[in-house]
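Friendly challenge for the regulars: who can give me the structure tokens for this chain first? No prize, just bragging rights.
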Amino acid sequence: MSDQKRFSLTIRELSDLLSGEVIGNESELITGIAEIQHAQKGSISFLSNPKYTKYIHSTHASALLVDSSFDQLDFPDELTRIKVSNAYLSFTALLETFQKLTSTPPSGFEEPFFKGEGATIGENCYIGAFSYLGKNVQIGNHVRIFPHCYIGDNSVINEHTILYPSVKIYPNTKVGSYCNLQAGAVIGSHGFGFAPNKDGSFTNIPQVGNVELGNHVDIGANTTIDCATVGTTRIADGVKIDNLVQVAHNVEIGKNTAIAAQTGISGSVKIGKNVLIGGQTGTVGHIEIADFTKVGARSGITKNTKSDQILWGVPAIDRQEYLKSFAIYRKLPELQKKIEELEGKILNLMLDK
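First reply, four minutes later:
Bragging rights claimed.
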């Protein structure tokens, strides 16, 4: 499948790669990457969150990627730093370099796999064992499909996309370029559509639409995106969806929106661009979440939102209003005691009359 190779670069080479400034020993060799609190000699870590500044005197890392905003910190003289404008983004670039230098992507066709009539596979692709490609499936160049994936009839997977093990793509689905679908993701499954009958039973409503994913979309492990009842469930370019998220039928998600784990998006919700939704959030159906909305974890969105709002709570309200309300909520036992005292005083006054 892949050959493990060695990562070995000097601090100067890494700094040049990241357009950084070395403060300290630039000739030392870096052979690994680690968290700041667990790093050992020969490894590099990063510092972008103030919560981790407490480790700068105890870390054994040979080098540290540091935001320029931390210049005021009293770093140990022996700790070499690479100063960059954004340590988190630089660390991401470093991880990409590490991945390229230490592994070789799988390629070729593993047997057995099934290829349906009319299916086409582009150049330099990898098809893992026990994968199923239905009729008229189109696989673009440089696509990687890991073992036990299912791709239904008439689906399209565009170039440089990766389907990790056991991804299930239902028929008529379109997946853009440079997408990553993690293990167990299900795209195009039957939407939750049932018509109630007079006797209390339900009649299944056929779901005849499809799903379309844009380019550079990331779908987490065991996330499900339902097909539309009619029409299309649309996930736009650059959307990032975490593990264990449910996206219902006919949902539309705008560009560069990010949704954290265990969130449930109900049917026909329209989510704008650059929206951030925290984990375990839920929505009612048929609402619109405006561009640049930010939603705190475990919130419940019950109505349309306005652009640039920050929402918390169940039902979700403006963050400042939520904090004011919560401050009162925390004082309820004290307020109850005061009310009971006042009631007692009023009762005594009435008895005195």
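The helical segments are 11-18, 87-102, 319-330, 332-352. The first strand starts at residue 9 and ends at 10. Your move, everyone else.
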